[in-house]
Write a structure and sequence with these properties.
heterodimer, A: 377 residues, alpha/beta, 8 strands, 9% strand, globular, B: 327 residues, 7-stranded mixed sheet, 5-stranded mixed sheet, 12 helices, 14 strands
């Protein structure tokens, strides 16, 4: 395993510790070559396998488009996730409609899969607050910018789910850097104490902006932290969508059976920068690492190889899908780009349920400064 | 029936009645269950309403507020207790980055109707970092409401309003007043509206604006000055620090032409500065003297041996009244 070797070597180099500390096993279902490691007959429906592939491909197409749009100055700073599609899509596909999702700013594939619209995603990165909304009936919170804070919201929403007994669960997404924050520990602790139906889903992509995991944490893995809170933990190959889906399904079943939270560490890698504002070449051997991960562990290629072997996928299907996705994404962006500009006066709305006098006053003052064309003086 | 309650008893009754009235209400915090809270505000509620609704949490302020946010997002009405206002700092991020912002960010789609109750202020000889008065951090944050009762009657009525409010409310309880006096508190579930100040005493020469435990100190000074000089002070308890009751403040200043603000929070950027500015905006031409502030000093709140020197005293307020009257 690429990352295991890398982690042991780095940990030893950085801390002088022995290399023989046991690292929890990585749960894997299909190898990077598309070989099946575990029996999946009757566990994953072939139609779902195809759906997994389509969703991952859709997410990647969106991500690539967003990076291009940022370079063209048509959207703002953007956080790409290419390389992490299996972790996000696999976990989101395991959820059901009413489940609560608490994402970060890098979890677009997860929220798209759970029902967020492409339009809202574009709007968010275009700097428009409407992009924080989600379609009616969906419980998708806006991306959490403060690190690890949303893990507690997921615990709280799960607490309410438990009280209401409706069987819904919560899932919180976070990265390896979040595990250094206090809220990570508080959330695991609360969830364990009250046995809340919540999944803590970490995408360990190896870097918190520029800091490698070995400098983030002295523990060799994230999942070993679960033991300290006496909650189940599983470490999965985050680029193996079958492994992710199966692990999340199992955690959901446990949560629904009243057996509390699970910490899931999905080991993965982001090919690109933290955001379009940084250059990964500065802090990691970008070419070597990206090549290793892209060529040897890419989540989409891996599934494609498997599907072709199983005769579930063909080149014609691929072409049809790509055309469809291009059209869908282009149409969504064209739609949001054609929207009227945000009305500046909208910033005064929704601060409180009822507008207090001072906001009314400031709103009126603002409006009085508009020129005849509605522009701001 | 004539029932006289301390502020603590009034708060307990408000919580008790809301727990009985609405199944969505739940309390969470450190030591609030079996122990009944460090000041016993939640005494008896665990045995009456059960451990699912009156919840002893791990010692984790961010955990308490962060999970209360999640609970409120998903249909509950959590009332979170932070043992002392100065203990809220680990949860500050949850309050200002999430509780205060979710309604605005999601254009009203997701809201966080939660209440954070916390004792605050000096005057009970508490240990270090148990006496701060940092309401200004929260008053400065759009999306939050901040209220402070100064009487048992208001404590009950304001707390019920806070629990029923669709927005997050920081409910600051002046520690010094918890057991300072009793007054009649009706048994029914009445509401004191958030956003309305209370005219405690009518007067014609000078308006004094205060809240929390400073009300009592201001009243003492006003009484003294009335006897000494015959000046009549109008005393106004703001009760709601955000939003402020601008109309009541300005009407009073227009009537008296003089204003004195008393708070135990630090002077710089304390709420007194905001009130002064509002008076300048709305009533400058009515003023016969500059607006005066009597406040805590701009030093860390000292250990309790110096508590009385740090806080505004009747003597300092008296001098402030004289300075303003003789300007």
């Amino acid at each position: 395993m690429l990352i295991e070797k890398d982690m042991r070597a780095r940990a030893a180099a950085l801390t002088g510790r022995l290399e023989d500390v046991r690292i929890p096993e990585l749960f894997q279902v299909i190898t990077p070559d598309g070989e099946v490691q575990q029996g999946i007959e009757n566990r994953i429906d072939p139609a779902l396998m195809v759906r997994m592939y389509e969703q991952m491909t859709r997410a990647r197409a969106f991500d690539r488009k967003a990076v291009i749009l940022q370079r063209q100055g048509r959207i703002g700073t953007y956080a790409p996730f290419e390389g992490q599609e299996a972790a996000q899509v696999g976990s989101a596909l395991a959820l059901k409609e009413g489940d609560w999702m608490f994402p970060t700013y890098r979890d677009h594939a997860a929220i798209l899969t759970h029902g967020q619209t492409l339009e809202n995603l574009f709007l968010y990165w275009m700097g428009r607050m409407e992009g924080c909304m989600c379609p009616a009936g969906k419980n998708i919170l806006p991306p959490s910018v403060p690190i690890a804070t949303q893990m507690l919201h997921a615990a709280g929403a799960a607490w309410a789910n438990k009280i209401k007994g409706e069987g819904a669960i919560s899932i919180a997404y976070f990265g390896d850097g979040a595990t250094s924050e206090g809220d990570f520990h508080e959330a695991l602790n609360f969830a364990g104490v009250y046995q809340l139906p919540v999944l803590f889903f970490c995408q360990n992509n190896g870097y918190a902006i520029s800091v490698p995991f070995q400098r983030q944490s002295a523990s060799r893995t994230i999942v070993q932290r679960a033991a300290a809170y006496d909650i189940p933990g599983i470490r999965v190959d985050g680029n193996d969508i079958f492994a992710v889906w199966l692990a999340v399904r199992e955690a959901i079943e446990r949560a629904q059976a009243g057996r509390g939270p699970t910490l899931i560490e999905a080991v993965t890698f982001r090919y690109g920068a933290h955001t379009t504002a940084d250059d990964p070449k500065k802090y990691r051997d970008q070419e070597v690492l990206a090549k290793e991960w892209r060529e040897q562990r890419d989540p989409i290629e891996r599934l494609q190889k498997f599907l072709i072997k199983k005769e579930l996928w063909t080149e014609e299907k691929e072409q049809v899908l790509m055309n469809k996705l291009t059209d869908e994404i282009e149409a969504a962006f064209a739609k949001v780009e054609a929207l009227p500009k945000t009305r500046p006066v909208d910033m005064f709305d929704h601060v409180y349920a009822d507008v207090p006098w001072h906001i009314t006053e400031q709103r009126q003052e603002f409006l009085s400064l508009q020129d005849e064309e509605g522009g701001h003086v | 029936m004539n029932r006289k309650f301390t502020m603590i008893q009034a708060i307990t009754e408000a919580l008790d009645q809301k727990l009985a009235d609405d199944p969505r209400v739940m309390l969470l915090g450190e030591d609030i269950g079996v122990n009944g809270g460090v000041f016993r505000a939640t005494e008896g509620l665990l045995s009456k309403h059960g451990a699912e609704r009156v919840v002893d949490t791990p010692l984790a302020e961010s955990g308490i507020i962060g999970s209360a946010i999640g609970l409120s997002l998903n249909g509950m009405l959590p009332v979170a207790e932070i043992q002392f206002l100065s203990f809220i700092y680990p949860a500050f991020e949850q309050v200002v980055s999430h509780a205060a912002r979710l309604r605005h960010r999601t254009r009203g789609q997701f809201t966080t109707p939660l209440v954070i109750r916390t004792p605050y202020g000096a005057g009970i000889r508490g240990p270090e970092l148990h006496s701060e008065s940092v309401e200004t951090f929260f008053v400065h944050t759009p999306g939050l409401k901040v209220v402070v009762p100064a009487t048992p009657y208001d404590a009950k009525g304001l707390l019920i309003s806070a629990i029923e409010d669709p927005d997050p409310v920081l409910f600051l309880e002046p520690t010094r007043l918890y057991r300072a006096f009793k007054e009649e508190v009706p048994e029914e579930m009445y509401r004191v509206p958030i956003g309305k100040a209370r005219i405690v005493e009518e007067g014609s020469d000078l308006s004094i604006f205060a809240w929390g435990s400073m009300m009592r100190t201001a009243q003492l000074a006003a009484k003294q000055i009335a006897q000494e000089k015959g000046w009549s002070c109008e005393i106004i308890d703001l009760r709601s620090l955000y939003p402020l009751d601008l109309d009541t403040i300005i009407a009073s200043v227009k009537k008296t032409g003089r204003a004195l603000i008393v708070h135990e929070a630090h002077k710089t950027a304390g709420l007194g500065a905001e009130i002064t500015s509002l008076i300048n905006d709305e009533a400058l031409i009515y003023l016969k003297a500059p607006v005066k502030r009597i406040t805590g000093y701009d030093v860390p709140v000292p250990f309790f041996t110096l508590e009385d020197s740090y806080m505004p005293t009747p003597a300092r307020i008296r001098q402030g009244i004289i300075d303003t009257m003789q300007f």
